[in-house]
Write a structure and sequence with these properties.
single chain; Jelly Rolls; about 40% helix; 2 domains; alpha+beta; nine-stranded mixed β-sheet; 12 strands
C-alpha cells in the first residue's frame, strides 16, 4: 500500500465518523454544509477524485466550511467565469489593476533586484507591499496609497524546480491577479486550474478565482517571480464586500501563517519572518 493510499484511508477513517456524528447531533446544519459544499465544488471543471478528497478531507476543508459564506458572496457579485480577462472588469477596477501592473512592468528590474537582495535563497518567498490594505514594504511609491479595489500587492518567488500541491483558496471576496515578470520559454512552468494549464510563456497575465482547485508549477532550474494581487470582486455593492474584508484584514497576519506556512514572508525592509511550519 502506498503512502497516498494510507493517507486517503486515514482521512476516510476520520471524516466518515465526523459526518455521521454531525448528522446525528445537528442534521439540518450538517445537511446544509454538505449541500453547499457540493454546489461549491461542482463549480470546478475537470473534476477528479483527488479534488473531492482534498476539498472534503484535505486542504480544502476551510473552503468547504466557508462555502455558505462564499455562495452568499456569489449572490451579491457579478457573474464569476472562474478564469477572468482584463476586459471582464468594470473600468474602475481595471484602472487600479492596470496602475499596479504597469508599475511592475516599468520597474521590473529594480523590483527583482531588491527581492533578490532580501531573499537570496529559499524554496518560496512572498515579498509583501500591501496585505489586505495594510502596508509593509514601502520602497515603491506607486504602491503607497489606499486602493479602493486592489487589496493585496506582493511578489511570490519560487526557486528552481519548486511547485505547490493542488489546493483551494479559502474566500471568494477577492480574485487573484498574477503576472509572471520573467516567463521562461518552457511548457514546464505554468498554473493549472479548471482542467487547463496556462503557460506563462504564452501569456504572463492570469486572473482567476483562487477558490477553484489549482496548482502552480515551476519545473525549470530558474527562479519564477509572479506579481501576486488580490482584488475585490466586481459587484453592484462593492462597499459591502469591502466591509466584509475588514474582518479578514483584522486576522490577515494569522491567515498568512495558516495558508502560507511553506513560504518565507518578507514584509519589512531588511527583515524576514518565516511562518510556522
Amino acid at each position: 500500500m502506498t503512502r497516498n493510499q494510507k493517507k486517503t484511508i486515514r482521512r476516510f477513517a476520520i471524516a466518515v465518523p465526523l459526518v455521521i456524528l454531525g448528522f446525528w447531533l445537528i442534521p439540518v446544519i450538517a445537511g446544509i454544509w454538505i449541500v453547499c459544499g457540493l454546489i461549491d465544488i461542482l463549480r470546478n471543471k475537470g473534476r477528479t477524485g483527488l479534488m473531492f478528497s482534498r476539498y472534503f478531507m484535505g486542504n480544502g476543508i476551510p473552503t468547504w466550511l466557508l462555502s455558505p459564506f462564499n455562495l452568499f458572496v456569489d449572490l451579491i457579485s457579478h457573474r464569476n467565469p472562474g478564469v477572468w480577462r482584463p476586459e471582464d472588469f468594470p473600468p474602475e477596477w481595471r484602472a487600479e489593476i492596470d496602475t499596479v501592473l504597469d508599475t511592475f512592468r516599468a520597474r521590473k528590474g529594480e523590483i527583482i533586484a531588491d527581492i533578490d537582495s532580501q531573499f537570496a535563497e529559499g524554496r518560496r518567498g512572498m515579498y509583501v507591499y500591501q496585505w489586505y490594505g495594510k502596508r509593509f514594504v514601502d520602497n515603491v511609491p506607486e504602491f503607497n496609497r489606499d486602493f479602493k479595489y486592489v487589496k493585496t500587492i506582493a511578489v511570490s518567488v519560487f526557486s528552481g524546480k519548486e511547485s505547490t500541491t493542488w489546493h483551494f483558496g479559502p474566500l471568494r471576496l477577492t480574485l487573484r491577479v498574477l503576472l509572471n515578470l520573467t516567463p521562461a520559454d518552457s511548457d514546464r512552468v505554468f498554473i493549472e486550474c479548471n482542467g487547463r494549464q496556462h503557460m506563462w510563456r504564452d501569456d504572463p497575465l492570469y486572473i482567476f478565482d483562487d477558490t477553484l482547485f489549482h496548482r502552480s508549477v515551476n519545473e525549470v532550474d530558474a527562479r519564477r517571480y509572479n506579481v501576486f494581487m488580490d482584488v475585490i470582486r466586481p459587484s453592484p455593492v462593492p462597499g459591502v464586500l469591502s466591509t466584509l474584508l475588514i474582518g479578514v484584514s483584522a486576522v490577515a497576519d494569522k491567515l498568512k501563517a495558516a495558508f502560507y506556512k511553506n513560504w518565507k514572508m518578507i514584509d519589512r525592509r531588511g527583515e524576514t519572518a518565516k511562518t510556522p511550519a
